[in-house]
From TrEMBL:
The gene is MPPE1_1. Residues 65-172 form the Calcineurin-like phosphoesterase domain. The chain crosses the membrane at residues 12-36. PANTHER family: METALLO PHOSPHOESTERASE RELATED, METALLOPHOSPHOESTERASE 1. This is Metallophosphoesterase 1. It is a multi-pass membrane protein. Its cofactor is Mn(2+). It is found in: Membrane. Belongs to the metallophosphoesterase superfamily. MPPE1 family. The keyword Cytoplasm does not apply. Gene3D superfamilies: 3.60.21.10. Keywords: Hydrolase, Manganese, Membrane, Metal-binding, Transmembrane, Transmembrane helix.
């Protein structure tokens, strides 16, 4: 009886150790590993750029994080476990990076959704909610979003409804100009750059010309300022163009 009791006790201890090992491995792989890897990344040390003499280098640099083609799966393509697994990994990687490195801006370069061009209104609402839950960021971090073809369709499959619902959900105009800490960004919807007279293309091309005048005016071109006096630019800097390359 004593021998049997000893064996049972040993088996219980072994199970406890095995369970503790499994839990430790799970916690490390699903939480701690992201901190171990991402903590090794550092912001680059920037050298003064003589080309941007109009921007005073006070050491307060703009830190940007770039993500592209996250392709959140919809209800048609992909297995539910694949969706669960990849979204958890993206969520943990993103939140860990935000916590450790605190970028000033996060750029999403197109194809947020895998089935945005096909999904129903209810599916799109659920898509948007999932995106904000997965990639939640503090209010002081600016999110810049450029549309991709999977978000609203290729050029010839576009329609005003698909374009408007994405633009409304993410404040993503066909062409958008903004300046953050003296750095100028121009976000362009690639589907609006086909060069024809589509409902999206002509207004976008007009907006690009207006922004060009604003930039010239901010740079000191007096003639450009005659045509565009009311510029939202506080100072000139070489613009960073955010646009999706369609393949």
């Amino acid at each position: 009886m004593m021998l049997r009791g000893t064996r049972i006790l040993l088996n219980v201890n072994l199970l406890w150790k095995l369970g503790l090992a499994i839990i430790s491995i799970f916690v490390y792989c699903e939480f701690l590993h992201y901190y171990v890897v991402i903590s090794q990344c550092q912001w680059p040390v920037l050298k003064p750029n003589s080309a941007d003499k109009n921007i005073e280098d006070n050491g307060n640099h703009l830190h940007a994080m770039v993500l592209a083609d996250i392709h959140l799966l919809g209800r048609r393509n992909g297995h539910w476990f694949d969706k669960l697994r990849r979204e958890w990994q993206m969520h943990r990687a993103f939140q860990t990076t935000i916590g450790l490195h605190r970028p000033n801006i996060v750029m999403f370069l197109g194809d947020l959704f895998d089935e945005g061009k096909w999904c129903t209104p209810d599916e799109f609402t659920e898509y948007v909610s999932r995106f904000h839950n997965l990639f939640h960021a503090p209010e002081d971090i600016e999110l810049l979003i450029a549309a991709g073809n999977h978000d609203m369709g290729f050029h010839y499959s576009l329609n005003p409804y698909l374009v408007n619902r994405f633009q409304k959900a993410f404040d993503a105009e066909a062409v958008k100009l903004l300046q953050i800490q003296g750095v100028t960004f121009v976000i362009i919807n690639s589907m609006a750059m086909e060069g024809d007279d589509c409902f999206l293309c002509r207004p976008a091309q007009t907006k690009v010309k207006i922004i060009a005048r604003q930039l010239k005016c901010a740079k000191g071109d007096k003639e450009a300022c005659i045509y565009w006096k009311n510029s939202s630019l506080k100072q000139y800097s070489q613009p960073i163009i955010l646009q999706v390359c369609l393949g």
